[in-house]
């Protein structure tokens, strides 16, 4: 798979010819609305025809397996597909083996080195008894290069049929699914969440669901609600009993706690609650995770940060989600949602106090459109990759890319004469984030939030990692 940036004069036909794929493969994996219109500067994912295949309408897994001379079982297992009859248009399948025709003078050792595999791996895959005896014209099966195994969580807010379909279509790439969310009441009871449909999607894709609780009141995080829970041991006992009952009733596999804007004076109370939660959940076989504000030091001031004790959460929880996004927030001035420069600052601190193998780095799946010059008190509109490209197309703007922040952006003037600035995520910005996961040796990533169309994310994710399932 390649990430290609559109240049003046490009066409899909020319790109397909250059990279030995088909227009339909490029169109489908990128979910292009108008294949005849490309925006200069936009990124495209280009499948490599011998290593990847994008599912088209009418395809079956058995047909695709036969095309690449692999078994249905191998193809399904390699792509974390639980039900071979459950594949979706646009899904990029990675082929567990590809073919190499031996040329005169080649040795198995040289071929193995070229593809980053071992002689033994090729010998086993190709049923070669004597590795020193290969001949020109012989077709070898080359195992796909091994990828780092990482975990992936995604939050989901849509609980309807569409939400279930999104989970089912993308679930082969999720370790965990976190329906957002169960609010906690002052008496320790849980607010209702109509999560049945998305949990069905998790079951169909062997994805472990996490029950997510928040200190929200009327849709906003409440410091007082958190305080009411964290300062009362009896209420905590009631809450944990209700959580475990709901986990057992719904088939959840663990608890994710997203308490935000907790009063600084409740920092130790929060830590004590986490210890109590771990003591209740772990013996029952359930995991405990938390969501943490993006801190750059242990002494960082602010209501969002002070009660989030990185060392304590890192010790007590099975893993933590770092909310490394929202620098470009809706009520602030235009900026990348998750500038790599700022994400690095958070990770530089986090890995000194939390084991990297417990850290899930937050990744945004959305962007924003600000009116400029920005005026304090105004709010940006949320956009996604597809709607951003539509805006660039409509107003005839090329996409720019900020190499410092590793994010695409552009400006345009609307019909009323109002100027705008748009920042969003694309294949390049996502690749930069996945590079950080590898560089810091993190446990994996956590997406906020499933739903906004970002089709390039899924093949780029799979290009970088093999996703662990907890089945």
Give an account of the 3D structure.
The protein is an alpha/beta fold and 471 residues long. Helices cover 34% and strands 22% of the residues. The protein has 16 helices and 23 strands. It has helices spanning 12-18, 23-30, 61-67, 72-78, 108-115, 119-126, 161-170, 196-204, 223-230, 233-250, 267-281, 310-316, 340-353, 385-394, 427-440, 457-464, and strands spanning 2-5, 43-46, 52-54, 92-94, 97-101, 139-143, 149-156, 176-179, 182-183, 208-214, 216-217, 220-221, 254-258, 287-292, 319-322, 359-364, 367-372, 381-383, 400-402, 407-413, 419-423, 444-450, 466-467. The strands form six sheets. An eight-stranded parallel barrel has the order 7-8-10-13-14-15-16-22, surrounded by seven helices. Strands 18-17-21-20-19 form a five-stranded antiparallel β-sheet. A two-stranded antiparallel ribbon has the order 1-2. Strand 17 (367-372) and strand 18 (381-383) form a beta hairpin. The longest helix is centred in the middle third of the chain and has 18 residues, at 233-250. The model has no long low-confidence stretch (mean pLDDT 97).
What can be said about this structure in brief?
The chain has 471 residues and is α/β, with parallel strands linked by helices. It has 16 helices and 23 strands. The model has no long low-confidence stretch (mean pLDDT 97).
Write the layout of secondary structure elements.
Elements: E1 2-5, H1 12-18, H2 23-30, E2 43-46, E3 52-54, H3 61-67, H4 72-78, E4 92-94, E5 97-101, H5 108-115, H6 119-126, E6 139-143, E7 149-156, H7 161-170, E8 176-179, E9 182-183, H8 196-204, E10 208-214, E11 216-217, E12 220-221, H9 223-230, H10 233-250, E13 254-258, H11 267-281, E14 287-292, H12 310-316, E15 319-322, H13 340-353, E16 359-364, E17 367-372, E18 381-383, H14 385-394, E19 400-402, E20 407-413, E21 419-423, H15 427-440, E22 444-450, H16 457-464, E23 466-467
Parallel strand pairs: 7-8, 7-22, 7-23, 8-10, 9-10, 10-13, 13-14, 14-15, 15-16, 16-22
Antiparallel strand pairs: 1-2, 3-4, 5-6, 11-12, 17-18, 17-21, 19-20, 20-21
């Amino acid at each position: 798979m390649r990430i290609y940036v559109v240049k003046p004069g490009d066409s899909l036909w020319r790109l397909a010819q250059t990279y030995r794929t088909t227009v339909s493969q490029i169109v489908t994996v990128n979910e292009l609305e108008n294949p005849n219109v490309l925006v200069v500067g936009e990124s495209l994912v280009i499948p490599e025809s011998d290593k990847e295949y994008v599912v088209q309408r009418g395809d079956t897994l058995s047909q695709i397996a036969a095309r690449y001379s692999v078994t249905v079982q191998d193809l399904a297992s390699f792509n974390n597909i639980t039900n071979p009859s459950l594949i979706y248009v646009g899904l990029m399948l990675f082929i567990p083996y590809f073919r190499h025709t031996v040329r005169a003078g080649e040795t198995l050792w040289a071929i193995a080195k070229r593809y980053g595999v071992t002689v033994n791996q090729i010998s086993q895959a190709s049923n070669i008894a004597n590795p020193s005896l290969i001949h020109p014209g012989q077709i070898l099966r080359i195992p796909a290069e091994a990828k780092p195994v990482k975990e992936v969580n995604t939050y989901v807010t849509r609980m309807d049929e569409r939400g279930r379909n999104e989970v089912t279509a993308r679930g082969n790439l999720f370790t965990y699914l976190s329906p957002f969310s169960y609010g906690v009441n002052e008496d320790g009871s849980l607010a209702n969440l109509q999560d049945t449909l998305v949990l069905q999607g998790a079951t169909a894709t062997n994805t472990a669901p996490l029950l997510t609780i928040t200190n929200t009141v009327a849709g906003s995080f409440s410091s007082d609600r958190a305080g009411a829970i964290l300062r009362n041991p009896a209420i905590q006992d009631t809450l944990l009993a209700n959580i475990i009952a709901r986990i057992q009733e719904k088939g959840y596999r663990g608890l994710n706690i997203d308490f935000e804007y907790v009063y600084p004076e409740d920092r130790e109370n929060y830590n004590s609650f986490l210890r109590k939660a771990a003591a209740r959940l772990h013996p029952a076989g359930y995991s405990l995770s938390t969501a943490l504000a993006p801190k750059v030091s242990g002494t960082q001031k602010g209501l969002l940060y002070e009660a989030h004790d990185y060392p304590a959460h890192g010790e007590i929880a099975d893993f933590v989600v770092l909310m490394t996004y929202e620098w470009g927030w809706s009520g602030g001035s235009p900026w990348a949602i998750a500038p790599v420069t700022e994400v690095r600052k958070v990770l530089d601190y986090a890995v000194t106090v939390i084991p990297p193998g417990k850290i899930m780095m937050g990744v945004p799946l959305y962007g924003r459109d600000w009116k400029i010059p920005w005026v304090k008190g105004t709010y940006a509109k949320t956009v996604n990759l597809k709607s951003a490209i539509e805006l660039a197309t409509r107003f005839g703007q090329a996409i720019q890319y900020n190499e410092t922040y590793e994010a695409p952006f552009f400006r345009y003037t609307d019909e009323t004469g109002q100027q705008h600035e748009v920042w969003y995520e694309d294949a390049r910005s996502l690749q930069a984030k996945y590079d950080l996961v590898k560089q810091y040796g993190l446990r994996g990533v956590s997406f906020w939030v499933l739903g906004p169309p970002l089709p390039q994310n899924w093949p780029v994710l799979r290009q970088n990692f093999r996703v662990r399932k907890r089945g």
